[in-house]
Amino acid sequence: MVEETTRRAVLSAVLGAGVGGMALTEARSYLRRFAPGSGSVWGAATGSVPDELSSPYGPATVRYDDYGVPHVESDDERAAYYAVGYCHGADRFFQMDLYRRLMAGRLSAVVGASTVDSDTFHRQMDFEAAAEATWERAEGTETGDAVEAYVDGVEAARVAEPTPVEYGLLEFDPEPWTPTATMLVEKQISWSLTGSFRTLRRALARDRLGEGAAETLYPRILDHDTPIVRNGGGASTPSMDGPDATAPAPGLVSWLDAFESEPGIGSNSWVVSGEHTASGDPIVANDPHLQLSVPPVWYEQHVATPASDARGVSFPGVPFVIIGQNAAGAWGFTNAGADVIDFYSYETSDGGSSYRYGEGTREFESSTETVEVAGGEDREIEVKRSVHGAVLTGYPDGDGFESADELGVAWTGLSATRTVEAVHDLNRSGGVDDAEAAIRTFDEPTQCFVYADRDGNTYYWVTGQIPIRTTDGEPVAGTRVFDGSAREGEWGPGYSPYGESSWEGFVPFEEKPGVRNPDYLATANQRITDDPEHYLSGGYAPPFRGTRIYDRLDARAESGEPMDAAFNRDLQLDTVDGRYDLFRPIIADAVEAGADGSGEDLDAPTAASLLEWDGETRPGDAEPLLFDQWLRDFRERTFGEAFEDAGLPAGFSRPNDWVLGSLPPDSEWFDGDRGAAAADAMAKSRARIDAEGWERYGDWNRVRFAHPFDQPFLNYEQLPTAGSAGSVRNFHSEASTGSSWRMVATFDGDSRAVLPGGNSGAYFSPHYDDQLSLWADGEYKPMTRTAPDGVDLRFTGADR
Amino acid sequence: MTPTFLAELRADDRRRLAATALAAVVGLALALGHWAGLLVAGALVALPQRSVVRGVVAGLALGSVAVGGFLAAFALAGTLGPALSMGQPLWLALAIGLFLPPFGSLLRGVV
């Protein structure tokens, strides 16, 4: 009896302790998320998906093709966009929600303290208020109605579809989608393409390195002869037009680095007229280089209504096709890199609560906001606005910046913009005239727009609002930090941050660079034109891609062979690294210098073998591996120590490869001996390759697309791939940027495209990553506007 | 100290088997709603058994059924492949499914 009583007591204690441990500790969270049957992460795998739903906007059908691309059809445009919204919500809701939280500065509420800095920056910029102003502008218009139908569709999916696995993992609930959220996504895109802190970096470089060095290392205009519009005039090389009003604090510049686009954001596009194609119809090619994320940044769709029949890609959260093709034309975008952001310092008073503005004094609009932090202490931050727009300052609990830690910011995207209307009109356009009318209202971001229509027209124009800054009534370039109190660098009176702008005082559409019916024209983020009518940009991409594209187009045109679709796809996949020609003489110097590590017993390619290389970045070759690694080391060998000695912050942006490769051999940056510097770098990179055990380029150059949670099962498989930062087939292995969509659009029904990953962001979907191998191997899939058989989702009409 | 109805239940094979089957169904239904259902399920199927060891074996068997059903649900939904590729989360689920019911079945040694 005693033994039984003891046993019962022990088992009771074990049970009690066990259940208590499970219910009262961290273990409960794991059980709640992963328990078989009830775990919150499993609903996405086993939940049922409806195939018939009612729509308040009327009937519509959705047919998914073999790659999960929805083909939406309806006789009513709003019914169609309700269905599109449903598809976005079903396939990409978590991604959309994350964009929204990022831009609204509410990430920390779900992911914890690691994103407090990000939330602080995004609250300071107050993108949400800009999105609200943009929605207020659109509400009640035809586009606004379509957006509202889309939002309702997203909401229907949020309720009807299984909750994405990420919500279960993070244990938070999806919030309702709203029209403002859609506008926030548009702001996110615009910021990622035009939100640059280049002006601040150059101001800091001028302060620390001196005016001459800064002009050499960070030139606004690069000395090459392949602008987008090849008018053969030769570029003038204007520098900044006056000293900076202040040198920004290094800590502020470093802090802001995290909120700017990754290196490698850019794109290729070209348009070829029917004069040069086999079919006699024009061809449009476009491959935007953006973050290679999981899921992809783009969502492919086909929407057919009586008003439009467009297929292409949109950003999840935005209803309309942004890059693609409709029944009349095909179009693409690349970043124009125009300077649409300026920075202002102020003379402050009253303990920093007021600032001088001209002859008067103004109060900063100021408020205290709470950044909610999951699993941590909430943070209070101060958000300020000036007459110019946002005010950026270092993180309040930060490192006590000593100077210029507070700057006013004017950015075109802070105003109400009409881009969503422009894209909607583009979807419905019936030819080049309609397309031009549509992009006149494409306020942000500044882009190079290429277009061709079925009638054989070709077209190129720069889009987006570009400010004309004036100081004392005279136009000035936006290349310096302005004295906001002295009213330097004022934008036109038509700019209203967080309100609706008239855009008077901005560059008129006709005065932006553009060409009607070009024979062929290529854009790769290089200088747009030699002689712009207005100041356009504080800096362009090096010309490696642009030159290579034009060289191949020129050669093909001269050969008389047609530029058919296959040629254009081949050009999109061109792997010749344009940097090789520039750096080959320097590699030869290194070989001559001798001390390049060739004599070491290393299992790595040698510098001498690089001199025999053809410059193609093939994953199976060893030479591109050494070239890529050496270039990193050579850049660092040249600038790293000198920048550190000058007091520039760690990781300060290095001069681009065109600048590095163009420095004279006896430049002081090489300590007077370029060959020795190159040889040092070569020895270092060979040793690293040996230590890492890399044998070929593909061992290093792999797709490493990571999901925001960076969970192994959510990330894409790592695959070796071709291409580099200097090739048309663009890929930045470390930054994970590159071709986020490859499209070659024709008018003979053979348009083709591919996404880096899959069209669905739902982990359990067969379309989560079903295009990844195609993308990595340089293959394409059809982009037809013929819907497949069988209806997957049927929306029936319902009274509203 | 054991309640009379439990003692009688354990002594009658037909009633014991019927009670076990009913406990399994009820327990698994509870497990679909909350993780604690797996504990309760283990306890329910263990209580009619004639010994503590048999009770734990019953709990383990129920855990196996729960895990088998869990994987079958993936197979029916066409998501077994990606589920198996998840690694840690899936192993965690299987471990939970196999551990909680026998742990709950320890109640057999108390009542």
From TrEMBL, chain A:
One of its GO terms (molecular function) is hydrolase activity. The keyword Signal applies. Keywords: Hydrolase, Signal, Zymogen. InterPro entries: Ntn_hydrolases_N, Pen/GL7ACA/AHL_acylase, Penicillin_amidase_A-knob, Penicillin_amidase_dom1, Penicillin_amidase_N_B-knob, S45. Pfam families: Penicil_amidase (PF01804). Coiled coil: none annotated. It comes from the Archaea. The keyword Signal applies. PANTHER family: ACYL-HOMOSERINE LACTONE ACYLASE PVDQ, PEPTIDASE S45 PENICILLIN AMIDASE. Belongs to the peptidase S45 family. This is Penicillin acylase family protein. It comes from Halolamina litorea.
From TrEMBL, chain B:
The chain crosses the membrane at residues 20-45, 57-78, 90-110. Keywords: Membrane, Transmembrane, Transmembrane helix. This is Uncharacterized protein.
